[in-house]
Design a protein that fits this description.
The chain is of the alpha/beta class. It has one domain: 3-Layer(aba) Sandwich (Uracil-DNA Glycosylase, subunit E), CATH 3.40.470. 37% of the residues lie in helices and 14% in strands. The longest helix is centred in the middle third of the chain and has 17 residues, at 145-161. It is globular and about 45 Å long.
Length: 238
């Protein structure tokens, strides 16, 4: 029987199945309290909801990655948004950046629907896994380098369990440098939209501008530009 944990499919017949191991890692991530500043911030935001979400109970915890354990594509963002994933409990769900990301994944055939509003909205990913460099919402959306490095082990373990991933798409310079640090790349790879870099394990690092409101409102990132990223990922075998 298939088990689905917010879009993570596994099997109850094999405790070592990727879905089970990723689920266990997700539970560990969700219980993390390693960074005092981030713990205080995420919980303070959850205790004082934005007026438009006043009726909702915020997640207020670290946010695990989610998607298909057999993914060939991994997407890595910066961190949960204070009133997005910190509210909904699923990465990129419930904010404008997520609206762009999931619509693009849907157009590229990785998602079954173009929007994501909550953890139980029916969204499923096929061939893709979505995660973040930092798992707690940071003040001003700016984690410190120490907070990033403290969290990187989780991303490393996720990518280690996602054995079929061949392409890692990073959304923004912060995620690019986080993955570079994780892999110990020297010199650090140049970030630019659609820039590609080989990783030591044979995977391809593919860069994209982040679908933040600042980038999408100004035209720094357009839908055709974003679609080109996932078309290239497909061309690379993801």
């Amino acid at each position: 029987m298939a088990i689905v944990r917010f879009g993570v499919a596994g099997t109850d017949a094999d405790s070592d199945a990727p879905g089970d191991l990723l689920g266990a890692l997700g539970a560990e991530i969700e219980g993390c309290r390693a960074c005092p500043r981030l713990v205080a911030w995420r919980e303070a935001v959850a205790a004082s909801p934005r007026a438009s979400f006043a009726a909702e109970r915020y997640w207020g915890r670290p946010v695990a990655g989610f998607g298909d354990p057999a993914a060939r594509l991994a997407v890595v963002g910066l961190a949960p948004a204070a009133h997005g994933a910190n509210r909904t409990g699923r990465v990129f769900t419930g904010d404008r950046s997520g609206d762009w990301l999931f619509a693009a994944l849907w157009r590229a055939g990785y998602a079954n629907q173009p929007e994501s509003t909550g953890r139980h909205d029916g969204l499923e990913l096929t061939g893709a896994w979505v995660s973040a460099a930092v798992r707690c919402a940071p003040p001003a959306n700016k984690p410190t380098r120490a907070e990033r490095d403290t969290c990187l082990g989780y991303l490393g373990r996720e990518l280690g369990l996602l054995v079929d991933v061949g392409v890692v798409v990073v959304l923004g310079g912060f995620a690019c440098q986080a993955v570079a640090a994780l892999y110990g790349l020297r010199p650090r790879p140049r970030f630019g939209h659609l820039a590609e870099h080989g990783l030591p394990d044979g995977r391809t690092l593919l860069c994209s501008y982040h679908p933040s409101q600042q980038n999408t409102f100004t035209g720094t990132l357009t839908e055709p530009m974003f679609d080109a990223v996932f078309a290239r990922a497909r061309a690379l075998g993801a």
